Automatic annotation (TrEMBL):
Record flagged with keyword Kinase: yes
Organism: Gracilibacillus oryzae
One Pfam family it belongs to: PPDK_N
Protein name: Pyruvate kinase
GO molecular function term, any single one: ATP binding
InterPro entries in UniProt: ATP_grasp_subdomain_1 (IPR013815), PPDK_AMP/ATP-bd (IPR002192)
Every Pyruvate phosphate dikinase AMP/ATP-binding domain range: 286-660
Amino acid sequence: MQLKVSTGMRGFDETIDSLRLGDNVVWQVDDIESYQGIITPFVNKALEDNRKVVYVRFGQHKKLVEDNERIIVYEVDAKKGFESFATEIHRLIEKESYKTFYIFDSLTELLTNWYSDLMIGNFFKVCCPYLYELDTVAYFAINRNVHTYSTIASIRETTQVLLDLYEVEGQRYIHPLKVWQRYSPTMFFPHLIEGDHVKSITASSEATSLFANVKLVEERMDYWDVVFTKAKDALNESKEKQENIKQLLMSLLIGEKSRMYDLCNQYFTLEDILRIASREVGTGFIGGKSVGMLLARKILRSEKEGKFHQYMEAHDSFYIGSDIFYTFIVQNGWWKLRVKQKTKEGYYQYAKELKEKILTGKFPTNIKEQFVQVLEYFGQSPIIIRSSSLLEDNFGNAFAGKYDSVFCVNQGTPEERYEQLENAIRTVYASTMHPDALEYRMNRGLFEKDEQMAILIQRVSGDHYADNFFPHIAGVGNSSNLYVWDKNVDMDAGMIRLVFGLGTRAVDRTVDDYAKIVTLDQPTRKPLMHMDDQKKFSQHGVDVLSIKENRLTSVKLDEAISNVWDVERNLFASIDTETSFRLKELGYQNMPTPYILDFKNLLKHSAFPRVIKEMLAEISRVYDYPVDVEFTANFRSKDDFQINVVQCRPLQTKGLGKSVEIPVVSPDEPCFIQTNGNFMGGNIRLPIDYVIYVDMDHYLSLNEQDKYSVARIIGKLTRELKEKNIFLVGPGRWGTSTPSLGVPVHFAEIQHVDAICEISSQAKGFMPELSYGSHFFQDIVESDIFYAALFEGEENVRFEPDYILKQANMLDNWISNAGTWKQTIHICAPNQMELLSDIVSQKLLCK
């Protein structure tokens, strides 16, 4: 039998047959003074019985427990948010261990920081079972007629003891509503408390008189909804009041003060914020991806001359609030596992288990109903469920490609379509436990930060073409061109990676298929490749949503473009006359017309390149930083089109994604490489484990067969060292098919390196066209390998091979006949070498 515990009120102990170890006791009160009145006897009795007493302080109300050296006090900051608060409480309970007695501040105080009844219910649901498990006794309070029925129901369901406390005409009454595993004939009557004496109010006349003076519990909206409903009234108030309310609502929807917050504050009005809130499912933040998309669109619509209005496709997105992510974890009973996973020791250990559980979890009924309403709104239009975590798409942390996005083709019965939606949401939630995402957060010191997952639900841009759905074009635009391949390219004009169909091929690497790289200063500029390569290194497959198969799939270009009915196809592609004649010669009939996807007319004769260039420039101007924008576009004619900005973030590439301070190196201070411009890969601070250097003079003196042998040795070295940070430096074009122009490695042989540098020298008469713009260069871009071109002898260029040549050549560690090649290939492990670059200042240094 469980040990009985006193409330400190002897008569009331007799009424409810005392408390038990493990009891969570929740008091519904009218004011904090009433709660304090019943805490005092409980604490005094606990101290008298030599119990360990802990007071958990987080509220703004007056202290409930007088200072006493025998009472342990924890002050916990609720402003940090649900996860930090709940985790800190969990850990203090773990520390204080078994049979501790607790006093908690009023749970209603959490509304001051969280503005969400839902999350108060969630907190109690994760805290209460752990207290029960450790045989504690804990007192909580909630204010009457403040919380929703569902919050009270959640607390009632979870707690062991629920009591109403009334103060009527100077007298105190306690009305037990739930006393777990105890019963007496008078237990659930109200009771008048007079010191140690308790009188049960059993007579109908007395009970009627009492309850006539008691305010009945009323149904309330979630406090979140109350705040946003009241905010609508402020639209008719003074500008000052509107601004104050806007700041509050932004802190609830967008997050804490940051550079992105400041930009939103500059552009969003109170009306904008209320419009966003009206399309939120649940409560909490809408996440970085949603914020970035909304901000970019508002910047473009706010442009003073209104020159983008006619070109902007409207959006009708929904946002699943970040609180739903926590609710999903709490309601499925995984919070304890989540807390274990958030520790340094359990970070990787428990991730797989948590991911597997997330993929099979259930959503609460009230949330499911809201999902149904969203689905009913979209009908059978294809939608995409996109991750929108708190840290995503922000300055310094892009999380690009780390979390999942899932297309819902949205075909079938309502039940089938709903199942697709739920599975997609679970998939996005589970992607928070992907190894790449875990590693990304760990490497940036973010593993302990709240990384709540909100979700952006967008209507897919495009139209039906036969059995498929896709936009005419899609792509990624950078306001600063990191893919410069000759000195005449204006970096500040920006560039785009353009594809036909869904934009997945613009952001994800597709084997043997290529997006179109367009320099926006001169859109028709040709990359450095032979005309014969034009078809080979273009897009051959098109990603589409198959209405018939109800899935994302790929079709051949000729099939996709032959079904485009609403615009001239030659806007995007030219007929492949050579292949067409060849097919006729071979006797093929009824074949789709073969095309080469060159976008020639689009880039030369339409307004599209100008408009997208100006859009990128305008967003970048406001951000005061280069930006990376995902877009789609649909055409009625070459100058009648609409662009849909589906994502926008500060431009991130390899590395930290924030400005890197390049140290000043004096002329007499040694370094390996120093240059201005002519690199691709963004801001990096990359520690170098190994440098592999191919000497220009010795390489050029080799016969052709030996040059191929050098390429094979390089491949062997990079495979052996693939877990290390490798910097590959050599003459001319890496990957050329002509050994006299550079080292003829295959891309597969160097795909594991972290950075490559190509060197040309006018003084030595070796000035081949470097890899910028070639198909090999595209492989480098796709694989996130940092790239630099070094023009030896030019102003502001330092190249000092002796910096590494003075270190021992380690080639014979991996190559049996190394002596033959040591003059040509030098590999060393330099001590504390770093490669640093900054895209804004366009400086690069390796020393």
